[in-house]
Structure prediction request, 387 residues.
Amino acid sequence: MTRKKIVWLCSWYPTRVDPFNGDFIQRHARAAALYNDIYVIYVAEDRSGAITTVEKEIKKYPGLTEHIVLYPATKGFVSRLFGRYKWLFLLRQAIRRYVVENKKPDLVHVQVPMAAGLAALWFKSRYKVPYYVTEHYGIYNEIIGKDSFANRTTLYKKLTARIFSKAERFISVSKYLGDGVNLMVTKKDFTVVPNAVDTELFFYKEKPQTVFRFIHVSNMIPLKNAGGIIRAFHALLQKGYQAELIMVGGEHTEAINIASALRFPPGIVRFTGEVSYREVADEMQSADCLVLFSIIENSPCVIGEALCCGLPVIASRVGGIPELVTTGNAILVASKAEDELTAAMERMLTDHSFDKKKIAEDAAGKFSYPAVGKLLEEEYSKQVISL
Prediction:
């Protein structure tokens, strides 16, 4: 197999000042790099105050190069306009550098159309290189409210539609998201390539027989409905069951206050706060079941990660979640139905039919870097053949 040269233009990507921003895109890049030479370009304005001048960093790994450019944020309307011009200037500069050093790539791949797709349009016009677009952004529904694509500016909508329409291929991380793009933006066939999981970290590890432990992993924003999980768990304990609940992620005051008001015994509900990717894996390998009770979801990475650890999942039947699970590894409940969630937790405690080793094996075959990288390679090969 001949390795292709592919430039990734990313709207989100992890940096030293924001290590979790688009980390799922980085995992896709690592998966794709198993089969092709991936060159990531990410340019971003830093609003944290950590960056005082333009910083450029190039990191090289086997099959993967990450070219990260950060520049300080500007204030005021005129300054913000200048900042957008600076973003485009630095992005084009990085593209020109790539072409000078490596010649034209075989393909450009946009990760999240706005705003990196604008550079892909320029790349295509100047260098005659086609591009793909992968969408990760779950804004193509009405449930998320003001952040919905429907509430974006006319300019945002037109530019997004143009980026999609000019792309050679559209890849979505879920059918739910792809259908949303077709409904709200433009009609375009798409292929689903799921989020990737680092199975060097997330894998089945036999857990000692201890108290049954439920785990929830999220940033605990309102759409994750962490409070609903805590109330449903409390109802479970009221039935006389023994279990623990570990809440991993950003500590939001509302969830903590709900747990405090319900007066759980010490140690029964634990909040870890934000932890590293490796620590998330450790927590999952020490748990028995993932609980995700979101009001809306696209294709949550934590489900793939939990399944790769062999954890059966309880999740709300919303968005792209049903695409990720089966009756052999999950129980789905209605969104906001806390009584259903309590019943599902009860079933997890009493039903021993879930085969954790098989759950992990099947999940690795779907979400591991080799599995996801192979799907991306198949898509890339279609374009090369058509050329």
